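Structure catalogue
Derive tokens from sequence
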Amino acid sequence: QVQLVESGGGLVQAGGSLRLSCAASGSIRSINIMAWYRQAPGKQRELVASIISGGRTNYADSVRGRFIISSDNAKNTVYLQIYSLKPEDTAVYLCYANIKTIGGTSISAWGQGTQVTVSS
């Protein structure tokens, strides 16, 4: 089994910053992809940032320049540093990972999400 646990969300005023963390645990040999999604009321789930095992990153246009995704392989953890928060960033932020297990299979896992609320 693999579990993802997010942390770091909260209530912040527009213009502020947050750092989200997602720690993966379980039967992990390596992590192929880790990503952050978000889902706001009335909107579809959106991929905001991803990082693959080689270090390549990708960002949604709406967050590029404000969000930075990074990973710590030794800790099986991915981070999302967010700057210049806007009210439209308000959403549940969910961690996703595609993981190669110790047994050699690849599985996907989702965290339960952490709430980010940006006040105007």
About this structure: The chain has a mean pLDDT of 96. The two ends are 40 Å apart (CA to CA). The first strand starts at residue 2 and ends at 7.
